[in-house]
Amino acid sequence: MEFFERLFRSLETEMREQYTAMAARQDQTNARLERIGGLVNGGARALAKLGDWSEKTDVSLAELLRRQQALEDRVRELERKKGE
Fold first, then answer.
1. How far apart are CA 36 and CA 44, in angstroms?
2. Is pTM beyond 0.90 here?
3. pLDDT digits over 23-72, tens only?
4. For residues 54 and 60, what is the distance between their CA atoms, to the nearest angstrom?
5. Which of 4, 2, 23 is nearest to 12 (CA)?
6. CA of residue 62 relative to chain centroid, distance
7. Residue with more model confidence, 32 or 82
8. Helix or strand or coil: residue 1?
């Protein structure tokens, strides 16, 4: 009977050690996945901001080009009138 008790205790100790090692590996994996998730989320936010900035810049540049064209038209008209 003592033999089985020692065997049981030995198996119990071994299983506890393996479970502890497995839990540590899972903790490391979870930490790694959280870091990766943070990078992915941060990158997605940065890309969304870049898209917003790009759209605003497109609108601003279109307005700037429209104003430049209007000024060029006015200068041409003034030069035409001056030449008459």
1. 12
2. no
3. 999 999 999 999 999 889 899 999 999 999 999 999 999 999 999 999 99
4. 10
5. 4
6. 29
7. 32
8. coil
